[in-house]
Amino acid sequence: MFLDFLLFLRAGGLKVSLDEWLSIIEGIYMGLHGQTLKGFYILSRALLVKKENDLDKFEELFYQYFKSVNSQRLKKEIKKLLNQPERAEQIFKSYMDQRKLEPQVMMEKIEMRINAAEEGYGENIAVNAEGVMNSSVSAGKGAGPGPGNGTMIQGAGGKSIVHAPGNRRFRDWRTDCTIESRQYQMAFRLLRELSRKLETNEEELDIRGTIDHTCRQGGILDIKMQPPRKNRLKLMVLIDSGGSMKPYEQLCSLLFQSLNKANTFSDLKIYYFHNCLEGKLYTDPSIDIKETVKTEWILRNVSSDYKVIFVGDADMAMHELVDNNSYSRSSNTDLDGITWFKKFSEKYEHSIWLHPQEREENLAWMSESFTEINKIFPMFRLSIDGLKDGMYKLMRNQ
Amino acid sequence: MSETVYQFQGTDDYIINDDLMLTMNIAIKMNKPLLVKGEPGTGKTALAESIAKALDKELIVWSIKSTTKAQDGLYQYDIVRRLYDSELGNEGVDDIKRYIKMGKLGEAFTSDKQCVLLIDEIDKADLEFPNDLLWELDRMEFYIPETDETVKAKNPPIVIITSNAEKELPDAFLRRCAFYFIDFPDKELMNDIILAHYPDIEDKIVEQVLDAFFYVREYFELKKKPSTSELLDWISALKLSGLSTENLRQDLPLVSFLLKKDEDLETVKKSFGGLR
Fold first, then answer.
1. What is the pLDDT of residues B77-135, one digit of tens each?
2. DSSP state of B255
3. B32 contact residues in A (CB cutoff 8 A)
4. How much is the pLDDT for A349?
5. Which residues are within 8 A (CB) of A77 and not within 5 positions of it... i.e. 6 or more apart?
6. Contact call for residues A200 and A227 (beta carbons, < 8 A)
7. Cα(B158)–Cα(B150) distance, integer angstroms
8. Which residue in A112, B22, B137, B225 has its CB near the most CB atoms, within 10 A?
9. CA pair distance A101, A112, nearest whole angstrom
10. Cβ of B19 and A42 within 8 Å?
């Protein structure tokens, strides 16, 4: 039933699970949609849409799918059935069997649906025999979304429930925009590996252990301690600074602040690089040549259980990335960028790249260096969704 | 269908729109918790109160704090008190049940009559919190290992969950809920809401107040926009003070009832200073 609609929603990017779909079918059997399109809209919205960010998408898809349906057409369709009893029987068979209804009731049901279609969608939803609810009271109060603002579901008056396109009142809630500090912090909180097995001197009272041991001692108090449960996750962040990253400075500083505020990691290391990885990394965002560490040193000394996040636009000149004879390099013994990146990805199993750009879906549109780096690191956009996907990736390495 | 079907139609002092009412009824009938989101002050908590009132049921409120754990809602085993009792040799130490205290969820499950359970601001708690409640809300039962008992809801409560969208809720949890997003009311609905709370207020005052309210909400760049509950407080303050409501929009008397943040008050005051 309505399987096409389910597939349509999923194709449109709304993640509808089978469970949710089954509850809709259940709802329809219970008559909760009240045999009207508006009822069906409310029912499916209540059960399928779980985030305000998706409301817009859902409304859009619902409109796309049902735009051709209006009361006139529905009425005509149902009326046709009156003249074709065999076909009607076929359609209603399972419905009638399920409810163990007599065949003559079928005609009544059809009549009822015609009336429902005629009366429009918003009012008198209690057309089905069970009379689940009666909305006429509040409709009379005029407490609906308010006439005149064109929202899609003021159903009265036989007006199509499907709204005028472009009138998308839930648009503000979409998440594909870039982010605020709090949301960053929430995303970083996904990075957690709680454990008591930490190398720490801290201890806290183990109440259960104490009581257990006290009981074993026959009531003589025997206090037990245990290390606290803390996040043992270690994180290293490498940020591209200066040059082509200038436009994204604010975004990066937000990221930096949230990283510091989140403060839940057992260790956090932040380094900076300029455009492309070189033999040296900077410890200060101003890329001061005096404050550097050797990249080789980091690879040797920072253990492989660190999770690594690169932040940068991944736009580099190809000669920086692959040509180790470039005169622009500080010394000739230095490796080229791509080798450094590969070294990192080999050592740190959990590493991702965050880029701040709005990029096309199609990789072919991106710059050459972007494509190269994408082969080494999984890349995510620095937006709420992207960051979160990135964090999941870091945690599970899926 | 022999089961009772509740018809929730709003109460005298809670104006509800069609969509929300239909969604609420769907949730009740399908035995799913209803997750309500929306701007602070749009009446998420009041919804539960009004449902309890309309259906004449007891309302159990479980207010979530940042430290709340799922276990707190089920039951608590007062192990320390039991220890004390055993040291002092008090009677009844053998009876573990004496030291098991039901939490709010447990209370709702063991209640003899069906009740309305409000889990308020679920997003305040830890990220894992909703997941810890999955089984309990799905099956309407939980297990107490200490007494080897399973508490099963005698009458599954109507569950309403509110969230201020501070944190994303886990997908597995969302899948089990029905969802409704309360939009900010428009002028007309707001008019009805005011009338529901102050039936004898003069039309002219309502008009003035609404005009000033939406002006403040839309004209200024505010950190925290005033919402329904602040508007109602403001009206009540204006009524009590007996101040003239002429030129409400220019004077904005007692504006501190609408704006709760110092910065916002500054913003509004500054713009007025500029005008005068």
1. 888 788 788 778 777 777 888 888 888 988 898 888 889 999 998 888 877 788 888 88
2. G
3. 23, 47
4. 83
5. none
6. yes
7. 20
8. B22
9. 15
10. yes
Instruction: Please give the single-letter amino acid code of residue B216.
Output: V
Which one of A19, A46, A190 has the shortest CB-CB distance to B23?
A46
Smallest Cβ–Cβ distance between A138 and the set B9, B30, B177 belongs to B9
Q: Is a pLDDT exceeding 50 seen at residue B276?
A: no
CB contact under 8 A, B26 and A122: no
The token duo for A37 is 């399109």
Q: Do B181 and A55 touch (CB under 8 A)?
A: yes
A143 with B179: Cβ contact below 8 A: no
At B206, which helix (H) or strand (E)? helix B203-219
Contact B86 A146 (CB under 8 A): no
pTM (2 d.p.): 0.58
pLDDT tens column, B48-87: 888 888 888 899 999 988 788 888 888 888 887 887 887 7
Nearest-Cα residue of chain A relative to residue B179: A46
Closest residue on chain A to B5 (Cα): A132
CB contact under 8 A, A144 and B18: yes
Chain B residues whose CB is inside 8 A of the A207 CB are 79-80
Complex ipTM over 0.85: no
Contact A32 B29 (CB under 8 A): yes
Provide CB contacts within 8 A for A102, sequence distance 6+. Answer: none
Q: B216 with B268: CB under 8 angstroms?
A: yes
Quick check: A142 and B188 CB within 8 A? Answer: yes
Closest chain A CA to residue B188: A146
